[in-house]
User: What shape does this take?
Amino acid sequence: MKSLFKSKPRTPADLVRQTRELLIFVDSNSNTREDKRQEKMAELTKLLRELKSILYGNSESEPVAEACAQLTQEFFRENTLRLVIICLPKLSLESRKDATQVVANLQRQQVHSRLIASDYLEANKDLLDLLVSGYEDPDMALHYGAMLRECIRHQSIARYVLESDHMKKFFDYIQLPNFDIASDASATFKELLTRHKSTVAAFLTKNYDWFFAEYNSKLLESTNYLTRRQAIKLLGDMLLDRSNSAIMMRYVSSKDNLRILMTLLRESSKNIQIEAFHVFKLFAANQNKPPEIVSILVANRDKLLRFFRDFKTEKEDEQFDADKAQVVKEIAALEPRDRS
Amino acid sequence: MEKKRYPTGSEHYVLYEEIGQGVSASVCRALCIPFNEIVAIKILDFEKHDTDLSKISREVQTMSLVEHPNVLKAHCCFVNGHYLWVVMPFMAGGSFLHILKAAYPNGLEEVVIATILHEVLKGLDYLHQQGHLHRDVKAGNILVDAHGAIKLGDFGVSASVFDSGDKQRMRNTFVGTPCWMAPEVVGQLHGYDFKADIWSFGITALELAHGHAPFSKYPPMKVFLMTLQNAPPGLDRERKFSKSFKRMVANCLVKNPSNRPAAKNLIKHSFFRQARSNDYIARTIIKGLPSLGNVIKELKMKEANMLAPKKISDGQEEISQVEEKKVHSQISWLPKFWGSSVRRDFDGDSGSSSLSFAFSASMEVQFLSGEISSPRDRSSSPCRSRKSRETESRDEKESISSSTIMETAAKSVHLCHQAWKQIIYSLTSYLRDKIVSRLLQSIVMTLMIKQRHQLCSKDVVSR
Assistant: This one.
């Protein structure tokens, strides 16, 4: 008897279609009986897990490219991604995690050597607004955050987020009290500011004033140790990137920036001091130091030289020692310009 | 369903006594004031981690997203000064390592073991289904609360990041971790396969049955070699254990990982039919135990007493039994050594296999000592899930080369075999460069000389 009713094995596209139907049901919130609803939720949980194992493989088998392509195509043919994102808060924790992994994986799936996820997102940019605001909901933050980080692998999507008003919110998100959420937000922030070089350089050039004003006051001068430590590290990464050299020149020509960096050099945390040094050295090594930078360095010359004499990394680091020697040489050779 | 939200601020907690200590983290019993609930708080010093902090945050995220009765979760975590506080459920019974040391030095009864392992396996199966590897299954990471509920703690890289336990345990982690390590950890495509956890699980079964892990009295280098060369360890024949127990252990401790059962299949083994309830553990094990704080204090004192005479009388034990500082220096040369072997073998694709091993070994040790990690030596990626591996490897030369090299290695049929040779080769070549200790050298040389000849001849052939 059983074999009579046994359905044919469902194709990946079938699975996506069924998932979509169930999501529509979940989303519509109709007044169905509780047991019926639970049955459907259980079915949805199973489907999401199946989708995940098609994309990632399981302990028995590796993923099959053809199946992944079918799944991806069907997924983006209609609004399944939107439904998943909207319905996520209504799913169980395990389903949320599965759904997040599915969405993350889909961002890398190519169909006919095109990333169709990118095309879909470009046509549905409001979804990104939803994902970013997820950081305000502690239950959703890690799921939406993980999805968001995958989405900004697409350059056009990263550009959208960078240029949106959301960028300003990140300065608060990365200081949220929950460490797991805050660190997720700072991982996304870092990704946005380092991944797509040309986009980042364009963004920083255009938004230099407000961005670094916020960066200095909210992050580098934060009362939170971890915020300062991560911010100074990221600042070093950004300024030392060759594609950002114009921005770096602008940054190291400001005496306010120099003051902040000198404060960070005096921190009690060794890790912050070291990272601060990697930015400070740019001020000193700049061959066209503006007079105001020179005069600050000259005024503090003795203190700085004394400081650098005892300033060492815990482990031997040749690059650091070479940089330090260079900085010391530069500072020692400085002459006050207008007093003669 | 409203989730219980634990407050994120140190002012909401009162810290009590320390119940565990590692190099960069310690664990305290504490009161969560608004809930009037006892919790455990792991306090980790960021300043002692000069590497990438993203590893810590990823592990904390995983810990806060698990929901299974047999896996320890993080209630919440927050930054306090330059410390990270991770609030977790308080497990009043401590770890089974503590329990073994304090009350059952010769091992537990079989029914108790079956009950413990059954719970552990449920947790392990959950983690595996989630795509997480535990990587550090051992009695020291099996925790039990006052009601006998058993949870697997410290999973993932956090095994080392959030290393808990007293100093006694810490040394055991270093000496001990090799004891729990599967032979193919050397050669797996993904660094650590799920099946490696099953090997560790089998070793843990032996640990619970005997009171200590096999080879645990040997120095780490020797343990590596013994794991590779000896037949898999088994249950003590002189003691009465059931056939199904012996079979279960033998199933786990098969050298070829593909012949080991997955967690979800192992759980059906007849050995676990005798498993009892949490309540049984509470009645038989937990009841008679002194409080965790006292257990740890006592263990510390015991250890201090044991150490002093041993040091003088027993020269043979030098490597594993010296005081804290020496253990550290031991630790610190190990990863460098593995590291150098990695670089040396980089260009030949046979070097691949030792690479993944090197990564996992150095990682384990790196975080334990907390002082030898260098920012560029971010070593976890080859061992993690596929997804995170991809994300991480993007800007990390080492990981990229390691994964591509590992891909090539996958094609090799004699992968494991070669891997063993590699590690052996690295051992010998390192020993050629530097004299570590006469003892080690003699052990390694005698064991290796044959292998080395084989390897050399093979090299010639391949050229």
Q: What stands out?
A: Chain A has 21 helices and no strands.
